Amino acid sequence: MPSAEMTPASMPEPEPVRPGAAEPVRPTSEDDIARAGSELIGGPLGRRALLGTSWWTPVRVVALVAIGMFALGMVQKLPCYDSSWFFGASSQYTHACYSDIPHLYQGRGFADHLVPYFDKLPDDMSGGMGYLEYPVLTGVFMEVASWLTPHSGGIQHQEQWYWFVNAGMLMVCAAVIAVCVARTHGRRPWDGLLVALAPAFVLTATVNWDLLAVALTAAAMLMWSRSRPVAFGVLLGLATAAKLYPAFLLAPLFLLCWRAGKWREFAQAVAGTAIAWFVVNAPVMLFAFQGWSKFYTFSQERGVDFGSFWLIWAQNSNNPPSTGFVNTAAMVLVVLCILGIAALTFTAPRRPRFAQLAFLVVAAFILTNKVYSPQYVLWLVPLAVLARPKWRDFLIWQAGEIAYFLGIWMYLAYTTSGDAHKGLPTHGYHWAIVLHLAATLYLCAVVVRDILMPERDVVRRSGDDDPSGGVLDGAQDVFVLGAAAHPPRHAAHIDVPQVDWGRPLPPSPESRSL
């Protein structure tokens, strides 16, 4: 018998029960497209299937599919590998197989054994760039690949090897991304197939070196899902040392930790990020500051470029916006988007999932930025899979990205083919940009709808709260605004187990009677 002094307020609150926490989610049972696609390999997985009895676990299958699809992407680059990178200005665009990697082997001094950031590049070699314009960890990746490249034979032979070596290293990154996504949502390992089979992922994987930062970011999110904020911070700091965009994930994490009161874990994540970033950057920053700062000055001074709505404005105006105006306006738009995401976070009926807000923040940066290179889609693919693992919506978005991938190369073919005008004219390219923007906005809208109507969220319909949320998963709210502060009078009816995560639980009948 409890003592007479025990009150409802002093009793420990009951832990919520997670329905079916140990049962894996079968996508063929909840997704029509996944069910139809499974017919290619024998049909949907049955309820009585023996899982875990074979070497072919979901994570291993996902990894092998990712490697196989990456190899197909390498085959797609074959026309350029054979000749188009080296002969003819427009053939690499008409074949849609362009890559920065072979061109920058000589253009950034790797063929001449120049040390990135420390050795100044001759203007006739770099087009006036002066120093390598990539963050430090990406520069290290490029340098390691040059060490593994045979420096013998002609320059074309070396550039082919350099691309091939980089492709092999990037293939490892692709497998890491697919595996991390498959393991982040523990009950949904087959969602990793969305990453492995994403068409835009396959087509853009070897255009540039972005997969390094994406792999580190995916690993960081896996660590956060395992409630390891320090490891998350270290990996996110390394990712930010390879590309700038991973730092934006701290914004949604701040908002979610504020709503849940998880300040200690957030502080650990920020400290790990800052320390890891500084350890990587400090040696170059201290001893080659001019070379180190090139990435940041180039990003600031770069004018309106491919893929952005700013380009449509500039090419259809007699008074195009200046670089300074675009920099300021893009920053203001990003801040406004983050403020909107903050309002959504604090007023949503249930605390949004970490992956949902991470996707929205990175998408906001991409949509408002003054440049959208085709490989930037890689930033969003794993976040989109974790935010909205629904094949229909994912493929709609991917269709828009494929249209843009083809559009930019056909536009460049048009501008480099002289009077022949082979390819897509300017107004056609503008429509490709619009399709990319519309498809991304569509996926953002679906994610926002899931946040406002949690019963529509694919992940939560399966009975989970926030499997990528780590310490946020199942945590109670300490700060909410608006309607989120008041329980709804009527709950929507859905045919799945109801889980009241992220909201203070009412006292149990036993506690009321004390």
The portion of residues forming beta strands comes to under 5%
Determine the number of helices (DSSP H or I, runs of at least 4 residues).
Answer: 25
Q: What series of H and E elements makes up the topology? A: HHHHHHHHHHHHHHHHHHHHHHHHH
Sheet with most strands: none
Number of strands: 0
As a percent range, the share of helical residues equals 55-70%
Mean pLDDT: 87
* End-to-end gap: 10 Å
Q: Taking Cα atoms only, what radius of gyration do you get, to the nearest Å?
A: 25 Å
Envelope shape: globular
Uncertain segments of ≥5 residues (pLDDT<50)?
1-21, 488-514
Q: What structural class do helix, strand and pairing data support?
A: mainly alpha
Layout of SSEs?
Elements: H1 27-30, H2 32-37, H3 58-76, H4 78-84, H5 91-94, H6 100-107, H7 123-126, H8 136-147, H9 155-184, H10 192-197, H11 199-204, H12 210-225, H13 229-242, H14 250-260, H15 263-287, H16 289-292, H17 294-301, H18 309-315, H19 323-347, H20 354-368, H21 377-387, H22 391-416, H23 426-452, H24 458-461, H25 509-512
Helix pairs in contact: 3-9, 6-9, 8-13, 9-12, 12-13, 12-21, 13-15, 14-15, 14-19, 14-20, 18-23, 19-20, 20-21, 20-23, 22-23
Short description:
The protein is mostly helical and 514 residues long. Helices cover 59% and strands 0% of the residues.
